[in-house]
């Protein structure tokens, strides 16, 4: 204690250089190291999104969705927002819950019309920390005309579609500056928008329901410059997600091509290098009991359960739910001009589907060596 008092008195009696020295010692303390603080903020920003993905979302909608719009391998278990609001009815704040549910009735169809995006939310600093955790990068290869509408096909799905969210539901990678005049809408389960509070959170980022009504509205009644991002491979593709593997489920996914033809919306292939690297998954071989269970869940319930892990919260050497900090580079390819056909034939659909598959493979081949893959690497299309 005497030593502390003496040191304190010395600072008070000392010159300006003594005070400066004391301040330098203060800011050299480890817990105030700037790089470490930023790293922790990155971890927190990713953790909140993972928890939102796992806890707040509703159960999937089963077989009611078109096959090209299925979700990934995670069955979101919670309806926490609904539970909290129901609990609020039993407290002194019950009036807040009543007012919110009343407003919800009047606002029910807003998601079907593209939602209510907020540039303020899309520009949160949190999303920049989210981006830098991996890091995530968006690469533009061609300009997009604002006089056209688009369907972006995002590949691969990965476990959580982290690149799709960061690039198109936030401004962390400056999508609006790279594609001026284009409004991206990341499509996800319609059931998400029946969840109180969660729906507001999703809509603020420009996320919309992936159903027929919403897509028809955005591509026909919302002007031009709209881009709907669909993770085409869905649950089936997520089952093959593992580090070191580049595979997409596309050969029999043709519904998005039919939609594009009906509305004359150009198709844009997207490949996200590194999406499969951020989580490790137990892959069950074809014919095994594990794969049989996954397929049954996918067929009858709408999601495919999988066993996966990332890194721990406090150490990269332990298992946990945080993704591994591996680079994700999302490359947006050249748009394929699609004519508008009210009633496209199967021959029309097959023709443009083949063109799309070829464009995706070419996109992968042109950029694979830039992002650490060997020239011999082949994109597996199933």
Automatic annotation (TrEMBL):
Its EC number is 2.3.1.-. One of its GO terms (cellular component) is lipid droplet. Pfam families: DAGAT. Keywords: Acyltransferase, Cytoplasm, Endoplasmic reticulum, Glycerol metabolism, Lipid biosynthesis, Lipid droplet, Lipid metabolism, Membrane, Transferase, Transmembrane, Transmembrane helix. It catalyses: all-trans-retinol + an acyl-CoA = an all-trans-retinyl ester + CoA; 1-O-(9Z-octadecenyl)-glycerol + (9Z)-octadecenoyl-CoA = 1-O-(9Z-octadecyl)-3-(9Z-octadecenoyl)-glycerol + CoA; 2-(9Z-octadecenoyl)-glycerol + hexadecanoyl-CoA = 1-hexadecanoyl-2-(9Z-octadecenoyl)-sn-glycerol + CoA; 2-(9Z-octadecenoyl)-glycerol + (9Z)-octadecenoyl-CoA = 1,2-di-(9Z-octadecenoyl)-sn-glycerol + CoA. One of its GO terms (molecular function) is diacylglycerol O-acyltransferase activity. The keyword Cytoplasm applies. It is a multi-pass membrane protein. GO terms for biological process: diacylglycerol metabolic process; glycerol metabolic process; triglyceride biosynthetic process. Pathway: Lipid metabolism; Glycerolipid metabolism; triacylglycerol biosynthesis. It is found in: Cytoplasm, Perinuclear region; Endoplasmic reticulum membrane; Lipid droplet. CDD domains: LPLAT_MGAT-like (cd07987). InterPro entries: DAGAT. Its main location: cytoplasm. Belongs to the diacylglycerol acyltransferase family. This is Acyltransferase. It comes from Equus asinus.
């Amino acid at each position: 204690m005497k030593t502390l008092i003496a040191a304190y008195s010395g600072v008070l009696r000392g010159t300006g250089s003594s005070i400066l020295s004391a301040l330098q010692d203060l800011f050299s303390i480890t817990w105030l190291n700037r790089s470490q603080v930023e790293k922790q903020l990155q971890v927190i920003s990713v953790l909140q999104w993972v928890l939102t993905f796992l806890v707040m979302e509703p159960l999937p909608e089963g077989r009611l969705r078109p096959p090209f719009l299925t979700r990934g391998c995670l069955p979101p278990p919670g309806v926490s927002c609904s539970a909290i609001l129901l609990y609020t009815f039993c407290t002194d704040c019950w009036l807040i819950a009543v007012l919110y549910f009343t407003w919800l009735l009047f606002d029910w169809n807003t998601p079907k019309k593209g939602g209510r995006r907020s540039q303020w939310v899309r520009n949160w600093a949190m999303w920049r920390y989210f981006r830098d955790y991996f890091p995530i990068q968006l690469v533009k290869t061609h300009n997009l005309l604002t006089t056209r509408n688009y369907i972006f096909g995002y590949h691969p799905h990965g476990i959580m579609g982290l690149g799709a969210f960061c690039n198109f539901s936030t401004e962390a990678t400056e999508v609006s500056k790279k594609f001026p005049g284009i409004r991206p809408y990341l499509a996800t389960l319609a059931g998400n928008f029946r969840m109180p509070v969660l729906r507001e959170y999703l809509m603020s980022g420009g996320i919309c329901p992936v159903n027929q009504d919403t897509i028809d509205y955005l591509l026909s009644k919302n002007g031009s410059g709209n881009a709907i991002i669909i993770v085409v491979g869905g649950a089936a593709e997520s089952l093959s997600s593992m580090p070191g593997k580049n595979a997409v489920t596309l050969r029999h996914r043709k519904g998005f091509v039919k939609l594009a033809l009906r509305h004359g919306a150009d198709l844009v292939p997207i490949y996200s290098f590194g999406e499969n690297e951020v989580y490790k998954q137990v892959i069950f071989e074809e014919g095994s009991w594990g794969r049989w269970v996954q397929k049954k869940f996918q067929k009858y319930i709408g999601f495919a359960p999988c066993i996966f892990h990332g890194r721990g919260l406090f150490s990269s050497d332990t298992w946990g739910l945080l993704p591994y900090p591996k680079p994700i580079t999302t490359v947006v390819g050249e748009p394929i001009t699609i004519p508008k056909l009210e009633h496209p034939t199967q021959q029309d659909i097959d023709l443009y589907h083949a063109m799309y598959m070829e464009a995706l493979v070419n996109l992968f081949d042109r950029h694979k060596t830039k992002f650490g893959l060997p020239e011999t690497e082949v994109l597996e299309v199933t």
